[in-house]
Amino acid sequence: MNENTGSRVVQETIALTENKRISEGYFRMRAQCGTHYANAAAGQFVTLRLLDQKDPLLRRPFSIHQVTIGPNGTPEIEILYRVVGGFTSKLSRQPAGSRIDLLGPLGHGFTVAAHTRPAAVVAGGIGVAPLVFLVWQLNRAGMNPDLITVFLGGQSKNDILCRDRFEQMGVRTKTATEDGSLGFHGLVTAPLETWLKTADPAMIYACGPHGMLTAVGKIARTANIACELSIETLMACGLGVCMGCAVKTHDNSEGYQHVCKHGPVFDAAAIA
Length: 272
Prior knowledge:
The chain is of the alpha/beta class. It contains 6 helices and 16 strands. Helices cover 18% and strands 33% of the residues.
């Protein structure tokens, strides 16, 4: 059982219904999956393996981008990914109908609540992957979408993803690019800090590069705002067995917890 949701962890073979390029170097795949994904939490992840895969040897982790329930009651999972190496390059070339080995849902997700005060959702590049599912679950929990502001950051406009999906859910979006090609010219933490001057948020959620998460965590601590961070790291097993994805924390007797088992979502105050 998964300690975050009570859902089962299952290994299954799925058939892709879509594997589409959405921006230069970014793809979104979709496939029907087991009914246990109806209980998946935003922030949880899966591991994938191609059926004929010999290299890399290990499975690869990906955030759950979205889970929807089809008219026949069968869940459909979406994975948003960036082509960065051999595995994702092979994955991007898999056509609809291809079969892939899926294991999940895994890990500990975000705390979803119908906040009555604003919430900020901060994404850096492909860190947006679990945040579409998060906003969808916040809306489903009864949170007013007018209270949610999504901050999308990236190196260039090519790295600003899913803006249309957030706006379709009725939430506000603010963009920042380091090259100035879209929105604020600079880091995404700058418009976040400007927003915080007039907002009184109940929570900040964030996923993205380590440097961005460190900065967001510091901003939240300084302003005394609750904050949850989804940490991206290399994983070997994804099940808490190999102990390879340890992070230093304040709230564990041994000083470390493991991203795949205790995360990937952590309270920002707990991260050392």
